């Protein structure tokens, strides 16, 4: 077999694409047509034609039930779900919200949108999840909430995070955008904290192109979240009864229709992703230069991402960016992942604008993951065949052999 790297002109390991996403069919078409013919397209008001059932209430009920929460409030996207959850939990402008730096920018911008200030606490390098002990060290008199992020579909130590939050009287919010179907110690993502937020953007394991939801089991928090997302109206009140400042952040019936159909596919897809992730564990365990991310046995993973790390002996010889280009040339769509938000110019500039001061948050584990170690495979890859997982491992083996041999 020709072991010349594809980036150097050799044959790539894989020449065909990975599975298309999203997956859809007659069920999605049927539900969307039902919403169309109902005459109720928006997220408020009554169904205009007899014989049709509104999709949004059914969707919210089923998704909350899936994750083990009592209530769901659908919104336009995952970023707004975080903003709504923070405000419903009582976070106000000037309050501090502790978040991990190794996450999508929306985890910070959702707070900054209304003047709440992100404070960064480092992750554990071995799990990539928020470190509860670093959260404790980051608490100040202005701290009002902890926003933990379930990276990749894994969950951090929710037992300990809840203990820390409760002992300091802080709201615990879960950014569970990547953790649909995940559980910690038998309790679903989004049901551990005061509220949990999800995204249904195009890449997510349930998708309607865009959309989000806030889950909670607290009826008062649910009513506040509903009000914030419904221009300050009161649940069960009059149409023009606005008792707080809110926004029109409602999901449409069309999005709910698609999500209901997608829900019917979720468990089979989750099982397939899990099988392929376990196979990758076995295959990559034999590859020199690959380090695994620790997965706690209390965690049922949601498998939005398959995460792994590059060992020092690889990153001392080649940059992560160059390594990613080599593997991508072999036909494997690896991603370098996030930029650490505690070093992100726009985020830190916005914090300075709101606070009037320059703040520094050293987070060495997150910075090392972002700059040198962390590599991702997306959920579409995990929907492929066993042969596809073998090609992933073969491509990484091929690149690492070259790096470790040619640059020693």
UniProtKB/TrEMBL annotation:
> Which residues does UniProt mark as catalytic?
204 (proton acceptor)
N6-(pyridoxal phosphate)lysine modifications at:
204
Pfam name, any one: DegT_DnrJ_EryC1
* A molecular function GO annotation: transaminase activity
GO BP term, pick one: polysaccharide biosynthetic process
Keywords on this record?
A: Aminotransferase, Coiled coil, Pyridoxal phosphate, Transferase
Query: Does the entry feature the keyword Coiled coil, yes or no?
Result: yes
Which regions form coiled coils? Answer: 249-276
Q: Note whether Magnesium occurs among the keywords.
A: no
Chain ranges passing through the membrane: none
Q: Which domain of life is it from?
A: Bacteria
Family affiliation: Belongs to the DegT/DnrJ/EryC1 family.
Question: What PANTHER family has UniProt attached to this entry?
Answer: DTDP-4-AMINO-4,6-DIDEOXYGALACTOSE TRANSAMINASE (PTHR30244:SF34), TRANSAMINASE (PTHR30244)
Protein name from the UniProt record: Aminotransferase DegT
Species the sequence originates in: Marinithermofilum abyssi
